[in-house]
Design brief:
Blueprint (H helix, E strand, L loop, with lengths): L5 E5 L1 H9 L4 H5 L7 E3 L1 E3 L7 H9 L3 H4 L3 H8 L3 E3 L8 E3 L20 E6 L5 H14 L4 E7 L6 E5 L4
Parallel strand pairs: 3-4, 6-7
Antiparallel strand pairs: 1-6, 2-5, 7-8
Length: about 160
């Protein structure tokens, strides 16, 4: 089974409210709730990592100074940069990290009415589409589910509404 990706569309106010209810969010993640949102930048390419970037990074022994190098800047742009072909998404992401914990991934409950749509990428199995649609409707009953398809001879994706069976 191959999934070409899943994108989740949500009501930003309802999704952000989970952060405001977490008593230690700003203390743990060193970021204000409004700063957790990052607007995606779209670029033709990310550029290349040069030997000079690597050399300069390892030449600096102080970790804080390393984080200001061109190599650190390059990797810092990656989570918020996508190919220019996706520009029409106008995507924002909610990103944060907690360096004080061993576990870097945290599960945060999302209110069932916060998810408005789920977009399933190209799949090679009807069962995958059905499973995602079923679980989405079970956990987020108000959400719509769309499946990607590619028009023959074209590179862009089109989406159609998935009906539950």
């Amino acid at each position: 089974m191959v999934i070409g990706g899943v994108a989740i569309e949500f009501d930003t106010r309802k999704a952000a409210s989970i952060l405001q209810h977490h008593p230690k969010f700003e203390q743990w993640y060193h970021v204000e709730t409004v700063q957790a949102w990052m607007q995606i930048r779209y670029a033709a390419d990310m550029g290349v990592i040069t030997p000079k970037m690597i050399f300069d990074f390892f030449r600096v022994e102080d970790r804080d100074a390393q984080l200001k190098t061109k190599l650190a800047e390059y990797y810092g742009r990656q989570p918020c940069t996508k190919s220019i072909v996706w520009r029409n998404e106008n995507e924002w992401r909610m990103l944060w990290q907690n360096d004080e914990t061993r576990l870097k991934i945290h599960r945060v409950p999302i209110p069932s009415d916060a998810i408005t749509a789920v977009y399933v990428g190209l799949v090679d199995s009807k069962n995958v589409e059905d499973d995602i649609a079923f679980e989405t409707q079970r956990k987020f009953p108000e959400a719509k589910v769309f499946r990607a398809y590619k028009k023959h001879g074209f590179s862009e994706l089109k989406f159609s509404l998935v009906g539950l069976r």
